[in-house]
Design a protein that fits this description.
The chain is an alpha/beta fold and 503 residues long. It has one domain: Amidase signature (AS) domain (Amidase signature (AS) enzymes, Alpha-Beta Complex). Helix content is 42%, strand content 12%. Strand 7, helix 10 and strand 8 form a beta-alpha-beta unit. Helix 9 runs parallel beside helix 17 and helix 11 packs across helix 13. The protein is globular.
């Protein structure tokens, strides 16, 4: 009999196999994770909403389907934590904002529907930076999530609740969205795997929009193989999303199982390094590159000269799209309504609601975006940023003519202390320095753990591949993961618990 503690330490694929083989049940697995949430989430604060009865009902339904002889997928009965930016009919969806407090959507996001169809058991909704704007989860209206490696540090953002849940063994899988690095950066600082699929490869229908040309749903897991299974389960063409790509899902599961880099050409991005990069991050990245070379990859340095302009371009494009998308929160149809006492005009109620309902970072980005789109400034700011975006895409195209994948650190530093960058937006924005180019160009990218820095905190290796070559990031990521597990004698994430025991 597998104990509750043993169940929460197992990965998604293993749990799915145990349930399918009758060695445990979906109900037992769900209960084990609910117990873990009850034990640790008071400290971690990964979740905004958990309904134990509803979770167990989902698990019971999976067990009943299997008992009836229905053939189910490899993740049937496996628990998952769901970022609170995906609409869910049976749970509130707040996007981490007070302006949507308690809102229950009338429809499921496509990814929510696909999770249900695959038999995954949704444990609850996870904390996030408000409207996905941030790199630390400190911008949530409902309190900061904490990094399980060090509760005084951030778990990254905007998908910080999702990364913390997986790193704290509260869930074997979780969902996130990546607009400028909001899956890869949290994965890096919490020592797990996070993937940004090709833009358009995963549906945005039912994802509360931040920046529509950038938002990309993707998976979190504790292994590359588990991430691939989740990627495959919820990806694919969706006619409800006008930007969805009508092409087959790349063979990501097969690539993760292959885990071989023999003969692959790996490009090290020259522009991602030097001043501003933590010594331990640079050291672990260098070792990961040497490891790839030892596994048979051909490593070369590649220059992408316009990557240095990605950060300012992003902070014109993303806020501009946000200023348009967030105009729908007007207090007239749903969500928070302030000052509606019968004496005020609709405009006054709208202004009062937005003043109280939006947090400081959301207001900052709305103002930036509105200014960039305003008459007389559009060409100088938004238009120019779009031109830079084209140059960055061309840099990627030129690089991928020389190499199969590009690699860099995922983020320049390990997890920073809660509050350390809260009053310094520019320092906060620099956390996404390495991740933003892939959002601007739309290509696939992954972050995999590659060791610990001098402060004992995890470092992420970012692997980037061309559009619709998502399988390459899984192939290379799995090879790195396997080699490092051989070196460490087990999964890197286990080291977090050794550190906890040593304190």
């Amino acid at each position: 009999m597998t104990t509750s503690t043993e169940l929460v330490r197992k990965g998604a694929a293993e749990l799915g196999a145990l349930i399918a083989g009758g060695e445990t049940s979906a109900v037992e697995v769900a209960r084990a994770h609910l117990d873990r949430i009850a034990a640790v989430d008071g400290q971690v604060h990964a979740f905004l909403h958990v309904d134990a009865e509803a979770t167990l009902a989902q698990a019971r339904a999976v067990d009943e389907r299997r008992a009836a002889g229905e053939e189910l997928g490899p993740l049937a009965g496996v628990p998952i934590a769901h970022k609170d930016v995906f609409t869910t009919t049976d749970m509130p969806t707040t996007a981490g904002s007070k302006i949507l407090e308690g809102w229950r959507p009338p429809y499921d996001a496509t990814i929510t529907s696909r999770l249900r169809a695959a038999g995954l058991v949704i444990l609850g909704k996870t904390n996030m930076d408000e409207f996905a704007m941030g790199s630390s989860t400190e911008n949530s209206a409902y309190g900061v999530s904490r990094n399980p490696w060090d509760l005084g540090r951030v778990p990254g953002g905007s998908s910080g609740g999702s990364s913390a849940a997986v790193a704290a063994y509260e869930a074997p899988l979780s969902t996130g969205t990546d607009t400028g690095g909001s899956i890869r950066q949290p994965a890096a600082v919490t020592g797990i795997v996070g993937v940004k699929p090709t833009y358009g490869g995963s549906s945005r229908y039912g994802v509360i929009a931040f920046a529509s040309s950038l938002d990309t749903p993707g998976p979190f897991a504790r292994s590359v193989g588990d991430a691939a299974l989740l990627h495959e389960a919820f990806s694919g063409h969706d006619p409800m999303d006008s930007t969805s790509i009508d092409r087959p899902v790349p063979p990501v599961v097969e690539a993760a199982r292959r885990a071989d880099v023999e003969g692959l050409r790996v490009g090290v991005v020259r522009e991602f390094g030097g001043d501003g990069y933590q010594q331990g991050v640079t050291a672990r990245f260098t070792e990961a590159v040497e490891l790839l070379e030892s596994l048979g990859a051909k490593v070369v340095e590649v220059s992408c000269p316009h990557f240095s302009t990605a950060l300012p371009a992003y902070y014109l494009i993303a806020p501009s799209e946000a200023s348009s998308n967030l105009a729908r929160f007007d207090a007239m149809r749903y969500g928070l309504r302030v000052g509606d006492d019968g004496t005020r005009s609709a405009e006054e109620v709208m202004a009062l609601t937005r003043a109280e309902g939006f947090g400081p970072e959301v207001k900052r980005r709305i103002m930036l975006g509105t200014y960039a789109l305003s008459s007389g400034y559009y060409d100088a700011y938004y238009g120019k940023a779009q031109q830079v975006r084209t140059l960055i895409a061309r840099d990627f195209d030129a690089a991928f003519e020389q190499v199969d994948v590009l690699v860099s650190p995922t983020t320049p530093t390990t997890a920073f202390a809660i509050g350390e960058r809260a009053d310094d937006p520019m320092a906060m924005y620099l956390a996404d320095l390495c991740t933003i180019p892939s959002n601007l160009s739309g290509n696939a990218a992954i972050s995999v753990p590659c060791g610990l820095a001098e402060d004992g905190l995890p470092v992420g290796l970012q692997i980037m591949a061309p559009v619709l070559a998502d399988d390459r990031v899984y192939r290379v990521g799995a090879a790195v993961e396997r080699a490092l597990e051989d070196r460490w004698g087990g999964p890197l994430l286990a080291k977090a618990h050794e550190l906890e025991a040593a304190k």
